[in-house]
Specification:
Length: 374
């Protein structure tokens, strides 16, 4: 063969093998919104134009939209679609004479339409919002986008209204928008609504300095304009509330040795009550032991002083009684008496009795003077 013939043969062979190796065009959905779908296809050698058409799956022979792309494009969008509709998309690779070289189809649902703004956002506590919205037909779930100017950005998937948005920061402003989700994707976010979480609970500490009072103290809560402190006695329903702008509060006039539960919350400058603290248990200090009496008891040849007092029944928890004599003797008891021993004759004992509970000791009883066998 001459050189020219060889060349023609090789060109023919090359073209033939390319055509033989070239597989059909392929198309896939890259992304879908409620109005626009982006498609990606494989390039087809010899194509001068790629033509894309979209038709509803319900009437595939009536395309609603066409777009043409040049030979170097393998990804393009087709718009003017309607929300939440299943479409079939056909890509045709055309040559210079508009002959179809290859074609392929794919289908997808368009995303739901944009939703109404969120109806209500209520702070549930300092870190949680309760969100209510109008559901969207066709939506399989919803995405609530939470963001703020401090760079916070989060998207929570929720299934229905109302929904809780958790793990936020206390007393912080957020913007919330909602998107409907279906199998195709998500709608555009609704226009945002602003909401602010409430103040965190005061970290209260309690103590009982006397048998009839409890002091509650707490570090200031930033931005708080006042605090509400509640108290109630266990086994009674009478709850009392007090407001203060201080960071401590003393409850006077309480019952000795009784259990109280205390809680507090902080109010913000917007006049909103914040998250309530957990209840803290605090017992008042016990009453001073009353009707203290002393007598001599013998244990074998050893003499002792039996000290006894009256038990108060209306008390909470264990009370330990501590008896001391200025003659360097002491005894403890959780019942109504104990024995100081050993004692000898001719001793003068000044005896004090104190009751203690978790809150601390009572005032000591007034001293009882006891003189052993003279
Ligand atoms: C405490 O303050 C709040 C808000 O100002 C008010 O609504 C409430 O009645 C007050 N409570 C008491 C016990 O004063
Ligand atoms: C209570 O608060 C007031 C004012 O904030 C302060 O003067 C006082 O010392 C506090 N008392 C206690 C027991 O912390
Ligand atoms: C407070 O005391 C009550 C009664 O004894 C008990 O049931 C409760 O668990 C206590 N709460 C705390 C926080 O200790
Ligand atoms: C409580 O303590 C006070 C002194 O702080 C004392 O005068 C009073 O008698 C005590 N009350 C009781 C019931 O013990
Ligand atoms: C009674 O209790 C006190 C305080 O817990 C302790 O110091 C003392 O040793 C006890 N006395 C006796 C006799 O156990």
């Amino acid at each position: 063969m001459g050189a020219l013939k060889w060349l023609i043969f090789l060109v023919f062979l090359n073209t033939y093998s390319q055509a033989a190796a070239q597989s059909d065009i392929k198309v896939s959905v890259f992304s879908a919104t409620s109005k626009t779908v982006i498609l990606r296809w494989t390039s087809y050698s010899g194509a001068v134009t790629y033509k894309i058409s979209a038709a509803p799956l319900s009437s595939p022979s009536s395309p609603v939209s066409f777009v043409m792309f040049g030979p170097n494009t393998v990804m393009g969008s087709i718009s003017s679609l309607s929300r939440d509709i299943e479409y079939i998309f056909t890509v045709q690779a055309l040559d210079g004479t508009q002959t179809v070289l290859s074609f392929a189809s794919t289908q997808t649902l368009t995303a739901p339409d944009i939703m109404d703004p969120i109806k209500t956002v209520k702070p549930k506590d300092s870190r949680t919002f309760m969100v209510e919205f109008n559901p969207k037909t066709g939506a399989t779930s919803y995405i609530i986008r939470v963001e703020n100017t401090n760079g916070f950005f989060r998207e929570d998937t929720v299934s229905s209204s109302p929904a809780e948005i958790r793990n936020l920061d206390p007393y912080t402003e957020y913007r919330l928008s909602i998107m409907a989700v279906n199998n195709a994707g998500r709608s555009q976010p609704s226009s945002p609504v602003a909401a602010k979480t409430v103040l965190p609970p005061p970290q209260i500490s309690t103590s009982s300095p006397s048998n009839d009072s409890i002091i509650v103290t707490w570090p200031p809560v930033a931005h708080a304009v006042q605090y509400t402190v509640s108290i109630y006695k266990f086994d009674s329903n009478a709850k009392e509330k007090y407001n203060t702008t201080n960071t401590n509060l003393t409850f006077p006039g309480l019952d000795a040795g009784c259990l109280y539960a205390i809680q507090s919350s902080a109010w913000d400058p917007e006049g909103r009550d914040g998250e309530g603290s957990l209840y803290v248990n605090q017992t008042t200090r016990p009453a001073t032991p009353s009707s203290v009496s002393v007598s001599v008891v013998m244990s074998g040849t050893l003499a002792g002083l039996s000290v006894s007092w009256e038990l108060n029944k209306e008390v909470h928890g264990t009370i330990e009684y501590h008896v001391t004599s200025d003659q360097n003797l002491n005894c403890n008891s959780t019942s109504n008496s104990c024995i100081l021993s050993p004692v000898g004759c001719g001793e003068i004992h000044t005896i004090h009795t104190t009751a203690s509970n978790k809150a601390g000791p009572s005032q000591p009883s007034s001293p009882v003077l006891f003189i052993t066998c003279e």
